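Q: How do we represent a protein-ligand complex in a form that can be generated token by token?
A: Start from the inputs.
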Amino acid sequence: MRRRTESGECCEAPGVMESSTTNPHKVYEKAETFWSRCSQDEVGMLGGTAVLQVPDVTGSVNFLNVLKRDKIVTNFENALDCGAGIGRVTKHVLMPFFKTVDLVDLVEELLATSAEYIGTDDGIGEKFVEGLQTFEPPKRKYDLIWIQWVSGQLTDQDLTSYLERCIEGLAPNGTIVIKESVSCGGKTLYHDTDGCWTRPESLILKLAENAGLKLIHKTVQTGFPKGLYAVKMIALKPVHPVEEDDD
Ligand SMILES: C[S@@+](CC[C@H](N)C(=O)[O-])C[C@H]1O[C@@H](n2cnc3c(N)ncnc32)[C@H](O)[C@@H]1O
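Then emit the structure tokens for the protein with S-adenosylmethionine bound:
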């Protein structure tokens, strides 16, 4: 998520460790406690920094428009918003493009709030209350799986396994987008407050590659205040494409 760095330029943020030796189950419990107590609005979803909303949405919509223009994303039936929270990304980024958007989040109360926040059921599909560490997306369903500010909540191993299951969830020519804060200097930093890791981009790409994904397009988010980690948008596709007549 969007944390402030100490220097404003690099990744030595206060209160973080280079890695965690903590038991993953305890980390997931910590995350659930943290997110179930956060404010159920845009500010809560943005880690208290409301000023990020406009540039974040603009950056994501521009990124999706490039994916559309370059025929990377070609079908606009079903999308999945991972770590959807109250549905901020669903409402402002995915619904304008996709016929139906499904949401998945660990915290039931946040998904419950999404009905009011989004303001319509039209275009909303299923809402799954589950941690991504165990969630299995429905098979061959999604033209786009969007994973924003939640990949850092999973251990390296669970993120790789989740991406493997996401591949199974892709429709033919489907795409996965990871939008995430990244550290620099090659270090992964653990944030104890919400049980979350900030990884270097190279590690995110390595874990994606381990899952069977290849990089298609990436860009850096612009327009954020100085002093935050860089945020990258990364479009990935399976190395072995999902075929039309696979089943
Ligand atoms: C920083 S917020 C981002 C919300 C949304 N992606 C956005 O950008 O507005 C992180 C979200 O991830 C959810 N989350 C945290 N750990 C999770 C996990 N293991 N599985 C699924 N969701 C999780 C939280 O409940 C919260 O809604």
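The first strand starts at residue 16 and ends at 17. Confidence is low (pLDDT under 50) at residues 6-15.
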